[in-house]
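User: For my dataset I need records formatted as: sequence, then structure tokens, nothing else. Please produce one.
Assistant:
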Amino acid sequence: MIPASGETRESTKAPKWRRAVALVTFVSLLNAMASMIIIPVLPKLVQEFTGDTAHAAGYVGEFAAAFALIQFIAAPVLGALSDAYGRRTVILISTLGLAADYMFMALAPSVGWLFVGRMIAGVTSASAPAINAYIADSVPPEERAGAFGWVGAAFAIGFLAGPSIGGILGDISPRLPFWVSAGLCFVIAGYGLFVLPESLPRERRTRFSFALANPWGSFRFLVEQRQIVALVAVLAMMMMAATCLPTTLVLYTDYRFGWSTAVVGLYLTSAGAGHLIVQSLVVKRFVRRFGERTAAVVGYSSVALGFTIFASAPSGFLFPLGMPFYALAGLVSPAVLSQLTQRVPPNQQGRLQGTLAGVQSMAALVAPLLFTQIFAFAVGKGRGHVPPGLHLYVGALILATGAVLAYRNMSRRTPARA
């Protein structure tokens, strides 16, 4: 049977954007793996320079805060640069810069030089806006949630595998993971140079202006694009809540249940695997059947329920009952990102993604301070008056607010193609 002309066009279009998603998914996987390989050995390398654990802990905390701050500044700039010079260019240059920086850190002779290298990494690893904008350029609106889910799943794989690989390599030498990360980044750059096509045609590009691309320009962008402010707030709710569990889990479970770090590590790995399953296997099917708004509302409501279980569980045996609900957080970001990209013109997708990355960096700065201070109050001055899981109840309240905002501000569903 000879297909109709519309079916022929469809059959030629679908493989094209699917190949594009596969390409940037692979880039996202290697980026995440390269950045996470060094995590287990960075404190050890700092300790080699400082000579004691106390000073090393202080430096590692400063490294983390400064890294988040640099990403807050750099992400909007790279997003705007991708609008002006193309997504492929920004991805390749960022990756090559990251490779050079990992080599720099592998050779660093002191903690000061290591700190400089980590700051450079904050700039060069902020290519996620260009990757997400690449998807917005290439993928039909009704398929974007699934595409964002795949990229998120790839990042989760790198996030899970990277520390394990880094720990094994670090036992050989604390500098070896930096060299391996550099090699991975060179692989990404070579792959992109020969295989990754540009997604943004020259006629759809905009002129670069640092006045618009700096972090404060991002807030100006939100003022200009008022139709997306509510959805950005929706996404920010999840970004805030997402930092609650990782930053307090060790202290909270040790205080309440006496969990060891090994048990916590196993739990976090299981949670990461749950997110991976949801983003890779569930998001696309769920959105196709129920729509993006329902996906976001269900995701927020489920995680709020999970947080309530975490806060209320009377024993460590019952604590993991919240994990399946927590895993459904993977429904939220792909659904909200999909609708956000549909409300912004093609030549401003980079600025949008840069703005979102800046919001995420702000959440990474503010939320850990908020939740750790609430926990400290609950087990300190508030002990006996408030539950020790107060920070998780606050997180659940933020998530419930996100569900309401998603219901009120998201379109019911993206219509399927005819």
